[in-house]
UniProtKB/TrEMBL annotation:
Residues 1-21 form the signal peptide. This is Izumo protein immunoglobulin domain-containing protein. InterPro entries: IZUMO, Izumo-Ig, IZUMO1. Pfam families: IZUMO, Izumo-Ig. One of its GO terms (biological process) is sperm-egg recognition. Residues 187-236 form the Izumo protein immunoglobulin domain. Keywords: Signal.
């Protein structure tokens, strides 16, 4: 009787509109719930209707949870939440048959909400807009529409300058850097060639090549996403010790 009362209380909010949610957006999770409803065909018609209501309301809880964490999720976080929930759901399906199937269903659905919340908390703290400087475009899913979109991630204060780095190399050495650059300029404003794999290479360094190099990361429209400065110091190569070549004395003349 107590369990039935809990079910009824939880279903009182079903009049609220149901929208997409992060785990509901995952096709495998939806199939998991559909298979569960099919496997419950032995239950009474009334219980089957209640099971469907519980699952539908769970999607509302997923949505409500995601909205507390910016309402978006990235593909990796969604995968982690889904696989953990699948594991728990498979354990639930192997449980011994219980009398109150509705209450047990509520428990596993709440477990899914807790799993989603755990992964969203981690994502919102470390994975959402992780750039400390520069402009970043991040592909995320909107949990209300189940559609992927590009989120614009601005660094604190829209800081595009990502700092200055000091580098040291010797003459005749090769220096390379691959920070995802598409444009690089030396201190005299000369544009250097950047390879297709975003690598800049300086071969056989000379002393006059030292200085400040400003490297820009650009998008397809030419917008500067980030800027970095490299202060390159070229030191003289160590002098090689001249090799001593022994000389033979001239033979003395004989009479």
């Amino acid at each position: 009787m107590v369990f039935r009362t809990i079910v009824c209380l939880l279903l009182l909010v079903l009049a609220l509109p149901l929208t997409g949610a992060c785990l509901q957006c995952d096709r495998q999770v939806r199939h998991l719930h559909e298979d569960y409803l099919l496997a419950s065909s032995h239950a009474s018609v009334e219980d089957q209707i209640e099971l469907k209501k519980i699952i539908d309301h769970t999607y509302f809880l997923y949505q409500e949870t995601s909205e507390r964490f910016h309402g978006v999720i990235d593909p990796t976080t969604l995968y982690r939440a889904r696989t953990e929930y699948q594991s728990e759901f498979h354990k639930f399906m192997k449980r011994p048959v219980v009398d109150d199937m509705l209450f047990e269903t509520i428990l596993i659905m709440e477990k899914g909400r807790q799993i989603l919340q755990k992964h969203l908390e981690i994502f919102s703290q470390t994975g959402l807009c992780p750039n400390k400087c520069g402009l970043l475009y991040q592909r995320v899913m909107d949990c209300s529409t189940c559609h992927y979109e590009m989120r614009t991630c601005l660094s604190p204060g829209d800081q595009r300058d990502c700092g200055e780095y000091h580098l040291r190399a010797e003459e005749e050495d090769q220096y390379s850097r691959e920070p995802g650059l598409t444009s690089c300029q030396s201190s005299d404003s000369g544009v250097l060639v950047v390879t297709p794999d975003s690598r800049i290479v300086l071969n056989q360094l000379r002393r006059d090549e030292q200085g400040v190099y400003r490297c820009l990361l650009l998008d397809g429209d030419g917008t500067v996403l980030s800027c970095m400065h490299y202060v390159l110091t070229v030191t003289p190569s160590p002098l090689t010790t001249p090799r001593h070549v022994p000389t033979l004395p001239y033979p003395s003349s004989r009479r």
